[in-house]
Here is the input.
Amino acid sequence: MSQTSAEEISAWLRLIESPGVTAEGARVLLAALGPPMQIFGARASLLSEIVGAEMARGLLSPASAALTARIAATQAWAKADGHTFVTLGDHSYPQQLLQIPDPPLVLYVEGEPAALAEPLLGVLLSRQSTQEGLRDAMRFARALSSRGLGLALDHACASLLPELVEGLAGRIVWVSRTCPKLRRPNETLIEPELLSTVAFTQHPGAQQLRGPSRGPHRLLAGLSRALLVVQAARRSEVFDTARFAAELGRDVFAIPGSIHSPLSKASHQLIKDGAKLVESADDISNELSGFTVAKRD
Here is the structure.
């Protein structure tokens, strides 16, 4: 159960979803005035001075019926065991996320929030990966997990989950934009508690958007101590995420492939740019020695 009160949840969601309020504006207000409940207690003139009249009007406007419903649904979600509403100002907010330019103001966490602060290896591969790529990802994941390294995965790794959640020893963090419905090949649901932690950035009940989204990938890069690129095209979310991670100072590892395969292009370019070529899990564990975490119970 989340320790954040219903009133605090309401104030945070109003700050994030009030009409005209940008994420940058919200961060400016938080820096200037403190938590959202203090922001909403401020004078209109002060709000206008800090973020402008238009944004101040949005903050002071009554919550819409849709927003009121989302607030109620989130408050109900936060009461359930194992659910945590984590805000930018919480001590449990992962500090490494503060290194990205636009850290999410809130995280919805199911499972162990502490897992988000542990050293994690992000695994990246294309949703169009070949069977060979999937086998490589599984081989590396199993070997590194057995040594206690936690793994951070996102929607592109869904095909790995059935074996990962039941066969790995290390912690598994699933990163998503919305609360995922994870299924095995036989269409039975994978229970979230089989994962160490599920972290998402949109309110419970939000629909998963179609098409590419940089949100989960940037979140995964921010949470991870290092990234492993298994297979991806040169022009892809995976490649952009790995470049973004390198800019953050994260270690980037890449598995090489055939020069004729489009799904090897991201790894090859990243290696040219300074990523570490890896052929076995030893190549990664030697680089990340000392960054292992406790195994799952």
